[in-house]
Amino acid sequence: MNVQHITDNKASGMTDDEIEEAALSDPDNLPLTSDELATARPVPKVRALRFKLNLSQAEFATRFHLAVGTVRDWEQGRTKPDQTASAYLDVIANAPDAVMQALGTQPEPSMQP
What we know:
Mean pLDDT: 83
Number of strands: 0
Distance between the termini: 49 Å
CATH topology of the domain at 43-104: 434 Repressor (Amino-terminal Domain)
CATH superfamily of the domain at 43-104: lambda repressor-like DNA-binding domains
Strand content: under 5%
CATH architecture of the domain at 43-104: Orthogonal Bundle
Structural class: mainly alpha
CATH class of the domain at 43-104: Mainly Alpha
């Protein structure tokens, strides 16, 4: 399957105004309101979270039952965590030990820093 990526408006054949109008008319992707933006919580930065826990990508992926490729892609900005993954990362950021305990992936006491 050949997928063409549109990099500028000339390639799409649409003006900036037409693109804006099309985006605003999409009921499945409405822009956030000012109130929604004000209360939105940022997604934890995976790399910073992993560094905070002193884990390699492979260790982080293993401890939290994630694919190492997914962790790598999130960190490199190739993909972004979806809503469920974002919530999971938020839980990991706030209670990593509880998550590892629930998953049975806590390190042996002698291995903890």
